[in-house]
Amino acid sequence: MTHIIVNVAWPYANGPRHIGHVAGFGVPSDVYARYQRMKGNDVLMVSGTDEHGTPILVEADKEGVTPQELADRYNRVIASDLCNLGLSYDLFTRTTTKNHELVVQELFRQCLKNGYIYKGTQKVAISPSTGRTLPDRYIEGECPICHAPGARGDQCDNCGNELDPDELIDPVSKINGETPIFQESEHYFLDLPALADANLAWLKTRQGWRTNVLNFSIGLFREVKPRAITRDIDWGIPIPVPGWIDNPNKRLYVWFDAVIGYLSASIEWARRSGDPEAWRQWWNDPATPGYYFMGKDNITFHSQIWPSEMIAYNGAGSKGGEPGQLGPLNLPEQVVASEFMTMEGKKFSSSRGIVIYVKDILERYPVDAVRYYISVAGPENSDSDFTWSEFVRHNNEELAASWGNLVNRVANLIAKNFGEVPPIAEDKMTDEDRALLNESAAAFDTVGSLIETHRQKNALNEAMRLVGDINKYISATEPWKIKDDADRLGTVLHVAAQAVLDANHLLAPFLPHASQKVWEALGGTGTFSPLPHIEEVTDLDDPSFHYPIITGDYVLGENLRPWKSEPIEVGANVAKPTPIFAKIPTEAVDEELARFESALNARREAEAQRLAAEQAKLAGDDR
C-alpha cells in the first residue's frame, strides 16, 4: 500500500462555484482519488474554501456585511455543492480556522529564520478619492510584458506572469475607474531568486507532467524577482513578527497563505482523526507522492510559489537553513492542471451572467450525468466548450441508451428467467463468451493506466468501449431467443452480468452514484462506492467558531470495492430493475438556452441602469 495525497485547488469563497471551476479541480481530482483507493492505496484528499484577500473585502463592502459573514455564507454554499457532486474529500475545511492560521505562521517564521523572507518596501496603489489602499486584483491596465489589455495588478492572465500594480501601463481602478496613485509601503518579501535554482532543479526532474504545464512552469523562471507576501489590508492572517502582529492594517497576502492550506488541512484532518501526527505519513516521507489538481490559471502558485515556500521552510535554497518543527516537506509529485472550459462559446463570467452554477445544474439533472459530461468533454489538455446540446446528447446516447439500457436488459433477462444470478455451465461456454470475459478483465489494466497518467478522457472512453462490446455480445447471442437450453441461457446471462459488473467497477470513479444502483440491480448488497457527507464541527482551537466540513469513510473491503474483476455472486437475487439513467428531453436544450439568454439580458439591463445612475450622479456633481 502506498500513501498518496490528492491536493485539490481551494475554491474562493466570494460566491458559488460554477461548472467551469469543478471541471478543472473537482471531478478530475475525485476520479483519481477514487481510483487510487480502489487500488488499495491510502489516499488523503484535502482542500477547503479560500477565504482571505481583497475580493472578499470588496464583495462584503458591496453587500454591507463583514468579510467573515460573507465567507461563512459561501463556505456553506460551496461545501454543499461539492458534497452533492460526490467529491470524496477526507477533509474539506476553510482558511479562517485557527489551525490554518497557526500553520501559516509557523511556515512564515521558519522561512524568515532561514533568510528567505526579508523586509523591504514597495509601491502600493491608493485611491485618490478615498485614501484607501486599492487591492492589486482590482487594478487593471496593459501588461508590460506581453502588452495584453486587462492585465491585473497581480497577474496577467494572457501571459501568466506575476505583476505588481505599479508595473501596469495606464493602470485604472476596477472599483471606480480612477487612476491610482502609488506610495511606498513597508512589507515582507519572499526571496524567490534565492529559491529559484532549487525550484528549477526540482522541476527539471519531473516526469509524466502534461507538456504545457511543465513548459509553462519552467518558463516562470526566465526572470524571477522577490514577491511581497504582506499587504496593507485588515482581512487576513496576522504577521507573526513583533510590531507587526498587532497591526490591524497589515496582513499576510492571500496567495502566501492559501497554498499552505494543503498542509494545514492535512494537520486538521489528523487532529480530528485522533492521531495528531498522522499527517506526517503524507508530508514527511519522501516516497509519498502528492498530486495537485487545478485549473491552468493556478499553475504559478503550485509549481513556483508553493514549492518555493516549502524549499524555504526546508532550508534547501541557496541560503541554506534547516526545517522547522513540521519537518522537511515533500514537494509536489505532479501539478495536474486542466485548461479552461467555456460556455456556449463564451468565457464563464458570473458578473456577466455567463454561468452555470453547480447548485442549479444538480437541481435539474442527475449528478452523474454532470460528472460524465465533465469527464468525457472537459478541458483536460485543451480548452473545451460546455454546450447544452452536447450535454443532453452524451447523457441520452451514452449513459441512458448504451450503459443504462445494457444494465437493465441484462438484469431484466436474469430476473425474468431465473430470479437470481445463474451459474456458468462450463460445457456450454463458447470462444465468444471467453473473449468477452478476457476483455473485461484486461480492461482494468488499460483503464487504470490511463487514469494514473491523468488521461481520464481516454480512460472513460475505454470503459465505454467495453460497454459497447457487451452490447454487441448481447445482440449476437440473443439470449431472449434461447428457449430450450437453460444451461446455455444461464451461461450467456452470467457472462453478460460478469462483464457488466466489471464495467461498473471501471466506471465507479466517474459515476459513483450510478455505480451503487448498478451493483444493486445485479444483486449486490452493501455499499459499492462510498459518498462523502457534511458534518458540523467546532474549531479545534477556538470553541466559539463552528463550520461545516466535507468528510467520509472510504475503506477498501468494507464499503469500497477493489479495482479488479470480482466474480459475480451466483444465486444473488435479481429483481426486475428500474432505469439507471433517464433520457433528458431534447426540449431541455432550448429551455436552457432561453434561460441563459434571459439571464444575460437581465445582467445587461442591470449594468445599463447602474451606468445611467453613475452618469446622473456625475452630472449632478458637475453642477
UniProtKB/TrEMBL annotation:
GO terms for biological process: methionyl-tRNA aminoacylation. InterPro entries: Anticodon_Met, M/V/L/I-tRNA-synth_anticd-bd, Met-tRNA_ligase_1, Met-tRNA_synth, Methionyl/Leucyl_tRNA_Synth, MetRS_core, MetRS_Zn, Rossmann-like_a/b/a_fold. Pfam families: Anticodon_1, tRNA-synt_1g. A motif ('HIGH' region) lies at residues 11-21. Its EC number is 6.1.1.10. SUPFAM superfamilies: Anticodon-binding domain of a subclass of class I aminoacyl-tRNA synthetases (SSF47323), Methionyl-tRNA synthetase (MetRS), Zn-domain (SSF57770), Nucleotidylyl transferase (SSF52374). Residues 589-616 form a coiled coil. Zn(2+) binds at residues 143, 146, 156, 159. One of its GO terms (molecular function) is ATP binding. Its cofactor is Zn(2+). Binds 1 zinc ion per subunit. ATP binds at residue 350. Its main location: cytoplasm. Residues 5-410 form the Methionyl/Leucyl tRNA synthetase domain. Keywords: Aminoacyl-tRNA synthetase, ATP-binding, Coiled coil, Cytoplasm, Ligase, Metal-binding, Nucleotide-binding, Protein biosynthesis, Zinc. Residues 433-528 form the Methionyl/Valyl/Leucyl/Isoleucyl-tRNA synthetase anticodon-binding domain. Monomer. Is required not only for elongation of protein synthesis but also for the initiation of all mRNA translation through initiator tRNA(fMet) aminoacylation. Belongs to the class-I aminoacyl-tRNA synthetase family. MetG type 1 subfamily. This is Methionine--tRNA ligase.
